[in-house]
Amino acid sequence: MLTDSQLEEQIVNTSKRLIVYGLGILWVLDGLLQLQPSMFTQSFAVDVVGNAIMGLPAPLYRFSLNVLRTLIIPHIFLWNWLFALVQLAIGVMLLKGSIKTRRYVLAASIPWSLFLWVFGEGLGGIFTATMGGGVFPGTPSIINGFPGAALLYAWAAIVALLPPRRWSMFAKISVVRDGPTILFAIAAAVQAAPLMWTTFGQASIYAADLDNLPARLALTVLPVESYTASHPLLSNSLEVATITFVALTLYVFKTRKWPFAMETALLLFIWWFGLGLGGTLTGLGTDPNTPPVIEILTLPSIVWTLKFKNLGQKETRELE
Predict the structure, then answer these.
(1) pTM of the predicted model, to two decimals?
(2) Which domain holds residue 134?
(3) Which of 74, 36, 68, 38 is nearest to 51 (CA)?
(4) I need a surface site. Which of 67, 84, 155, 304 has the fewest CB within 10 A?
């Protein structure tokens, strides 16, 4: 029978590989999305980067706008190639590189992710007061992509770089294992912000998705957008309760499979009804947004749960 330390070592090794491969796939996808024809036009600079930096605090916004106008837009073709190649290189080396190479690439991806989080995602919409991001300064929503996919890329890279002794899968509280739980708990608190209980707040959450899906697919979002705007108190009560429930079940029932199924269902709802698959079908989507990377961050807990199941089966056979 495996000891706790041997089981934990298996969990750490398996989880790290899955996180690295998951990040590698996402970075390759991001690089390929960056090669879409529209990305080589001013539409990328104006509609993607321009909209993102609108969510930055005033001093940073003015600086970013000046750089965008004087440096990026006049040379958008070259800059876009650079962005695409950097992301493809990160992804390919994470998938194909040696263990040592992967560690270097993971470390290098952290500042790149933070750069994208600031200038490509406007700090995840934390300061945005528009229909396309957070609905009011300081009140974004996980349904709109809080806290930003790029920030979670950096988080996942840091998790993959942590030494095994820092994982503490058997501890009562583990940052690695319980990271998604903490994220959902924060998201529930953010969702309870005052403006989220209003018609404007609820409409803002789902209206942004209508532009991220083709017209026929956007029709599936219209009933949700209409109902939530008409019943903001009930809608936000359900949203806060659901996010809170997922956070609690992930923490309390951390060795059961059904909480992860619930989390996946919530992420799928967010991905479709709140984010429109991250805008990947619009020709201007740069990444699939937060749900896939949140699922990747949950992999250590899923592996931990499956390992406990296997260990339990082994113990039963031995008793028989």
Answers:
(1) 0.91
(2) 4-319
(3) 68
(4) 67
